[in-house]
Amino acid sequence: MYAFTYHRPKSVADAVSLLGQFEDPKLLGGGQTLLPTLKQRLARPSDLIDLGQIPELQGIREEAGGLTVGAFTRHAEVAHSDVVKRVIPALASLAEGIGDRQVRNMGTLGGSICNADPSADYPAAVVALKATVRTDRREIAGDDFFTGMFETALEPGEIVTAVHFQKPDKAAYAKFRNPASRYAIVGVFVAVFGSEVRVAVTGAGPSVFRADDMETALSQDFRADALNGASVSAAGLNADIHASADYRAHLVRVMARRAVEACG
Amino acid sequence: MANPNGIGAPVRRREDARFLTGRGTYTDDINRPGQTHAVFVRSPYAHARITGIDATEAMQAPGVVAVLTGADMETDKVGSLPCGWQIHSKDGSPMKEPPHFPIARDRARYVGDAVAVVIAETREQAKDAAELVMVNYEELPAAVTSLKALEGGAPLVHDDVGGNLCFDWHLGDAAAVDAAFSQAAHVAKIDLINQRLIPNAMEPRAALGEYDRATGEHTLTTTSQNPHVIRLLMGAFVLGIPEHKLRVVAPDVGGGFGSKIFHYGEEAVVTWAAKKIGRPVKWTAERSESFLTDAHGRDHVSHAELAMDRDGNFLALRVSTVANMGAYLSTFAPSIPTYLYATLLAGQYKTPAIYAEVKAVFTNTVPVDAYRGAGRPEACYLIERLVEVAAAETGIDKTELRRRNFVPASAMPYQTPVALQYDTGDFAKNLDIALPLVDYDGFAARKAESARRGKLRGIGFATYIEACGIAPSNVAGALGARAGLYESAEVRFHPTGSVTVFTGSHSHGQGHETTFAQLVSERFGVPIENVEIVHGDTSKIPFGMGTYGSRSLAVGGSAIVKAMDKVERKAKKIAAHMLEAAEADIEAKDGRFVVAGTDKALTIGDIALQAYVPHNFPLDELEPGLDEQAFYDPKNFTYPNGCHVCEVEIDPDTGVVQVVSFAAVDDFGRVINPLIVEGQVHGGLVQGIGQALYENCVYDEESGQLITGSYMDYCMPRADDVPSFTVRYHEDQPCTHNPLGVKGCGEAGTIGASAAVMNAVVHALSEYGVTHLDMPATPERVWQAIRRHTPAQAAE
Question: Is the peptide bond before B367 cis (omega within 30 degrees of 0)?
Answer without folding.
Answer: no
